[in-house]
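2024-03-11 09:14:02 INFO worker-7 job=invfold-0412 stage=load source=structure_tokens
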């Protein structure tokens, strides 16, 4: 009918719009990747030019004429780590951190003892008091934080592979308390700006990747949700061992938040099936259910748990049922993504 044709055209137009936006987003992602590498390459070339100029003729012979792709990849990785850590950071090993604290403690001790700065000027009483306080703090940290840092590093290593955001946040909090993260402007450690221990960097990176993965899953769920609203034709999910086709057909009325899988009745016209009667499923604990009928009636599976039970009952060693099981599992994963998108 004209009404049906119009509805189909509108659904297909929405579907094209979803796919076009997805294609444009993928192009933008590739552009961002290229831009990041180009920026890294440009920065490295400037650094190399400055090094060659500072080294003179001898340096021109020793230093490379162009940056390598390996160096570009390392610079990209460094920039991605900075993004995960909330800005540019210097990564220090435990040994480098302890050496930096020892050097700083000696420097502050000399300043406190001499009472003059590097230009030979006397420190004011307030400046001298601040130097003594910093010296005592650094010495206390260097001499007493060992056990706390050992425990914090162990926690960071475990958290980095835990996949649990709460565990990672707790490990980072312990690392801050153990002074495995800081800022040169506040504590004098490092070449300047923020610094982190290597294990702290690893947890920041893992947490960033986990949030990125979740955002991607939410975006994919929204795409699946949009596409599910533009379907104008339903193809069977597959066949079971009896040759019966299974269909994913959502009801027209609300609610539509649960999957509805229909299994056609057994018939002498089915191809490739066997004559053994099908097993009947039971009501699931969370409210999902299968509704078994007679051998000549359709079977209706409602809800994720019922559909998951149906998938688990299929024999993945058989060609038909392995395909049907894979289709059901894809459908359930898509539902989970859609639910995540709706909640995010």
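2024-03-11 09:14:09 INFO worker-7 stage=emit residues=344
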């Amino acid at each position: 009918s004209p009404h049906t044709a119009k509805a189909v055209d509108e659904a297909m137009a929405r579907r094209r719009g979803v796919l076009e936006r997805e294609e444009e987003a993928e192009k933008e992602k590739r552009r961002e990747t290229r831009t990041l590498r180009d920026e890294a390459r440009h920065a490295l070339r400037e650094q190399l030019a400055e090094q060659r100029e500072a080294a003179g003729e001898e340096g021109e012979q020793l230093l490379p004429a162009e940056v390598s792709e390996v160096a570009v990849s390392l610079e990209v990785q460094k920039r991605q780590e900075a993004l995960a850590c909330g800005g540019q950071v210097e990564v220090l090993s435990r040994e480098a951190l302890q050496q930096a604290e020892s050097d700083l403690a000696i420097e502050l001790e000399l300043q406190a003892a001499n009472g003059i700065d590097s230009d030979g000027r006397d420190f004011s009483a307030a400046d001298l008091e601040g130097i003594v306080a910093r010296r005592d703090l650094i010495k206390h940290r260097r001499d007493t934080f060992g056990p706390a840092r050992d425990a914090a590093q162990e926690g960071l290593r475990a958290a980095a592979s835990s996949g649990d955001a709460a565990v990672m946040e707790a490990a980072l909090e312990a690392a801050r308390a153990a002074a495995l993260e800081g800022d040169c402007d506040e504590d004098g450690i490092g070449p300047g700006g923020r610094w982190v221990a290597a294990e702290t960097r690893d947890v920041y990176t893992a947490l960033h990747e986990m949030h990125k993965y979740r955002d991607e899953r939410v975006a994919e769920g929204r795409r699946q949700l949009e596409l599910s609203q533009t379907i104008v034709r339903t193809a069977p999910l597959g066949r079971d061992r009896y040759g019966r086709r299974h269909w994913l057909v959502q009801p027209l009325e609300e609610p539509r938040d649960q999957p509805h899988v229909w299994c056609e009745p057994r018939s002498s016209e089915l191809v490739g099936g066997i004559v053994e009667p099908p097993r009947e499923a039971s009501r699931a604990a969370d409210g999902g259910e299968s509704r078994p009928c007679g051998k000549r009636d359709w079977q209706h599976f409602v809800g994720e748990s019922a559909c998951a039970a149906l998938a688990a009952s299929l024999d993945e060693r058989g060609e038909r049922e392995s395909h049907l099981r894979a289709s059901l599992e894809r459908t359930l994963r898509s539902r989970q993504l859609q639910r995540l998108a709706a909640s995010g």
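2024-03-11 09:14:09 INFO worker-7 stage=report msg="Residues 271-287 have pLDDT under 50 and may be disordered."
2024-03-11 09:14:10 INFO worker-7 job finished
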